[in-house]
Automatic annotation (TrEMBL):
This is Cell differentiation protein rcd1. Residues 277-318 are annotated as: Disordered. InterPro entries: ARM-like, ARM-type_fold, CNOT9. Pfam families: Rcd1. It comes from Urochloa decumbens. Residues 308-318 have a biased composition (Low complexity). Belongs to the CNOT9 family.
Length: 318
């Protein structure tokens, strides 16, 4: 009996994937599949390897580009695009589809949404859900992913959102930068020139100032982890000894971090490292953000170059 029910669910899911290629049935299929993506282990495989499905999802995404500038995006159009993006996030997150997803350069289709600045709710949903796609890639901690993100200048996009976005978009963008830093290639990229390093450090410092007025434990935790990772580079380590915001040193955030012992530990680890001699920099330890990124889920409603919604909305941090 249980197997029969499982078989029926699989058939229904496959039919929904098939329906994505039918413009008249696509809207409902987007909603239904977005709701199933957290419970279906092989949805990413069905989406990627079924004929025409990815093209149909990209069609939904591209169709809203004209409404980005000037900002005329309707909530209904944003809803469909967010659900399509949520399905692309599923593909980006799966270990068997992540590499072909990257090789096909599908992530570049979300960049126009990251470039938007409108504070309208529909635009914020698009930014957060798009960040979720990039965050799913970054979470893999794969050097190939990091190189792709660096080449396509994701860091400047994230830095701008870290400076101007909502709490959730700032949190996801900071997580992405943190994961890029976690890779040695990413850390070297950020610390390669004083301009690049101080651009990142300036955004982080401004975030600390903003957090003293509007505390957010989960966002602060990612900011602290970014600073902690920067200290693994000798040049950045030296700079941090004099440029670390005073609010991180003087106990300003003790109440904010009281209910998050891990975040408090990371802050103390940061302060202990910076108290040591500049000539001795410990090697990187375990990733302090192994718990994962916040990401969009159905049901919820300015950086320069480094040279080189169901409604889709946020879910909680893990």
């Amino acid at each position: 009996m249980a197997q029969a029910v499982k078989d029926i669910k699989m058939i229904l899911e496959e039919q929904l994937v098939f329906n994505l290629c039918n413009s008249e049935l696509r809207g409902n299929a987007l909603v239904e599949l977005s709701q199933k993506r957290e419970t279906s282990n092989d949805l990413a495989l069905k989406l990627w390897y079924s004929f025409g499905t990815i093209a149909a999802l990209l069609q939904e995404i591209v169709s809203v580009y004209p409404a980005l500038s000037p900002p005329t995006l309707l909530a209904s159009a944003a809803t469909r695009a967010c659900n399509a993006l949520a399905l692309l996030q599923t593909v980006a997150a799966h270990p068997l589809t992540r590499t072909p997803f990257l090789k096909a350069r599908i992530p570049i289709f979300v960049f126009p949404f990251l470039n938007t600045t409108s504070e309208a709710k529909s635009f914020e949903h698009l930014r957060v859900t798009s960040l979720g796609v990039i965050g799913a890639l970054a979470k893999a901690e794969d050097t190939k992913v990091v190189k792709f993100l660096l080449k396509n200048e994701v860091i400047p996009l994230c830095l701008r959102i870290m400076g101007t976005g909502s709490e959730l978009s700032k949190t996801v963008a900071t997580f992405i930068v943190q994961k890029i830093m976690r890779d040695e290639v990413g850390l070297q990229h950020i610390c390669a020139t004083p301009e690049c390093f101080f651009q990142v450090a300036s955004v982080l410092a401004n975030m600390v100032i903003a957090l003293t007025e509007q505390p957010s434990t989960r966002l602060l935790k990612h900011v602290i982890c970014c600073y902690l990772r920067l200290t693994d580079d000798p040049r950045a380590y030296t700079a941090m000894q004099t440029h670390l915001p005073e609010a991180l040193r003087n106990g300003t955030f003790d109440n904010c971090l009281r209910d998050d012992p891990a975040a408090m530990h990371f802050l103390q680890q940061l302060l202990d490292k910076l108290a040591g001699p500049a000539s001795v920099v410990p090697r990187p330890g375990p990733d302090p953000a192994a718990g994962g990124a916040p990401h969009p889920a159905p049901g919820h409603g300015p950086g320069g170059s480094h040279g080189g919604p169901s409604q889709a909305g946020p879910s909680h941090m893990h």
